[in-house]
Amino acid sequence: MMELTHDHLPIHLTNLAQRYGNIYRLKCGNTTMVVLNSSDIIREALVKKWSDFAGRPLSYTGDIVSGGGRTISLGDYNEEWRAHRRLVHSALQRCCQQSLHDVIEGQALHLRKVLMDYQGSAVDLSEDFTVAASNVITTLAFGKEYDKRSLELQQLHSCLNEIVALWGSSWISVLDSFPLLRKLPNPVFSRLLKEVARRDEIISKHLKNYKSQDKKNEDAITGSLLQGLDKHRNTEDGVLLTDIHVHMATVDLLIGGTETTAAWLNWTVAFLLHRPEVQTKVYEELCTVLEGRYPKYSDRHRLPVLCSLIHEVLRLRPVAPLAVPHRAIRDSSIAGHFIPKNTVIIPNLFGAHHDPAVWTDPYSFKPERFLEGGGGSTRALIPFGGGARLCLGESVAKMELFLFTAYLLRDFQFIPPESEASLPDLRGVASVVLKVKSYTVIATAPPSGQKH
Ligand code: HEM
User: Fold this and answer.
1) Ligand 1 contact, 139 CB (< 6 A)
2) In 278-428, at which residue ranges do the beta strands (DSSP E only) sit?
3) pLDDT 10s digits, 246-305
4) φ and ψ at residue 331, rounded to 5 degrees
5) Among 191, 383, 407, 418, which is most exposed with the fewest C-beta within 10 angstroms?
6) Cβ of 73 less than 6 Å from ligand 1
7) pLDDT (tens digit, 9 = 90+) per residue, 34-43?
8) For 2-444, CATH number?
9) Is any atom of ligand 1 closer than 6 Å to the C-beta of 167?
10) Which helix (H) or strand (E) holds 35?
11) What is the DSSP letter of 24?
12) Angle 444-266-391 (CA atoms, 0-180°, nearest 5)?
């Protein structure tokens, strides 16, 4: 248990790999965990043997936050889960084709205005990034976007963040390992229950509002999901999906899609402050290729320097550094080791991205490694996991990372405030999401000389 209480667990598990190898076992009470630390081994388990390792650990507290295992992220692998994931996946795909690009462009332009309004003062941008990412998801989900000062938005964020933070706390996880403790008073657990109830109230209100609208936003995912439910009821495959599944899918999209993208944007600016010449190269590429216009996602193949930056930040700071734990649903093997049924599998994506056998100088920020002749290969990157549990929002996230970064670096140069003695701390704070410690930055006009 002591091994799991380190403040930066991904770094600690990566250090253990240097002593014990890229696959090792930890025992916690009567739970056996196997930690995977290289991208080949992670791929073997998650992709090649996906049907052996697609389960999620069964947990008392997980059941509470996921409405009895009915979220996609925490639900165990079974027919109901497969039907649920298929339903949400096709709704997301439909909306990616129809409206995602416009939605992200709208938010990127709004973010541009917010940054302009700061007029070169030193600010912490994390909340603005969260609002931009969250507005993409709430627009997709129920056709609604919020102002940063909106009370409703603040309530939604505070409640979702609290749930993630409380659920990750040892006061809660101890209840999974030691059932007897569930009988004792536990104020942290009571708070978790309260926040879950508050979350459900907020989401139910939105779904009710959506259903009662005469003129519904046709592009919203909620519409596709509800239509999908109706179709599902008519099929005879024996699996019943209900409004609860639409409700929990909304929770999945909001939790999975807000802090991840926002944390990644924060990391990107932090790394660029450490190596301003990378920012200049991306800016020059944007000027040359776009000739003054704003970028489209289809431009990505013509913007290799920008893409190398995106890959390098995903490599160094995979925002879900330990993915979400998997569970062996039958006896199997990984890298030649026998893995019994019910073993918990931890894919250490952070470790895989720092594997010295794959990456030269793995701890350095060097986007150029992904450019021709730089020696890096995107094949060894695995920031979204893989197989049956591949991040459900991968396509949404990729488009967001590309467009937000391109818009920001086209119109702004990020510089550190003079008053600040040091640059942002790059170690980060690891919980379910790996975040950078808060820092301030000045967004100013890009260097003259090159003009759009
Ligand atoms: C930089 C952005 C993102 C990264 C790096 C990321 C990464 C991940 C990872 C590593 C997992 C766990 C995979 C596993 O269990 O093996 C995951 C799961 C998930 N992500 Fe993302 N994610 C991002 C953005 C998003 C967005 C934008 C959404 C929603 C639109 C989203 C929704 C989900 C959901 C629902 C799951 C659970 C999938 C399942 O259990 O089947 N994520 N993500």
Assistant:
1) no
2) 326-327, 332-334, 337-339, 344-347, 413-415
3) 999 999 999 999 999 999 999 999 999 999 999 999 999 999 999 889 999 999 999 999
4) -60, 140
5) 418
6) yes
7) 999 999 999 9
8) 1.10.630.10
9) no
10) strand 31-36
11) E
12) 140
Q: What are phi and psi of 284, to 5 degrees?
A: -65, -40
CA distance 254 to 198: 15
- Annotated binding residues for heme, written as ranges, equal 391
Among 35, 384, 405, 433, the mutation site with the greatest number of ligand 1 atoms within 8 A of its Cβ is 384
Residue 216 has pLDDT above 90, yes or no: no
**CB of residue 323 inside a 6 A radius of ligand 1:** yes
* N-to-C CA span, the chain: 56
pLDDT digits (tens, 9 = 90+) for 327-365: 999 999 999 999 999 999 999 999 999 999 999 999 999
Cα 370 to the chain's mean position, in Å?
Answer: 22
The tokens describing 309, both together, are 């930056």
**Distance (Å, whole) CA 317 – CA 346:** 17
Spell out the residues 6+ positions from residue 145 whose beta carbon is closer than 8 angstroms to its own.
107, 135, 138, 139
Q: Is the CB of 319 under 6 A from ligand 1?
A: yes
Residue ranges of the annotated binding site are: 391
Query: What three-state secondary structure class fits 143?
Result: coil
Please state, in angstroms and rounded to a whole number, the distance separating the CA atoms of residues 275 and 271. 7
Q: 226 CA to middle of ligand 1, Å?
A: 22
Taking the C-alpha atoms of 336, 337, 340 and 343 in order, what is their torsion angle to the nearest 10 degrees?
-110
Indicate which atom in ligand 1 lies nearest the CA of residue 386. Answer: 16
DSSP 112-128: HHHHHHTTT--B--HHH
Q: Are 202 and 191 in contact (CB under 8 A)?
A: no
User: DSSP strand E in 78-237: where?
Assistant: none
* Single-letter residue type at 255: I
CA 246 vs. chain centroid, Å, equals 20
Which residue do the tokens 């209100």 mark? 205
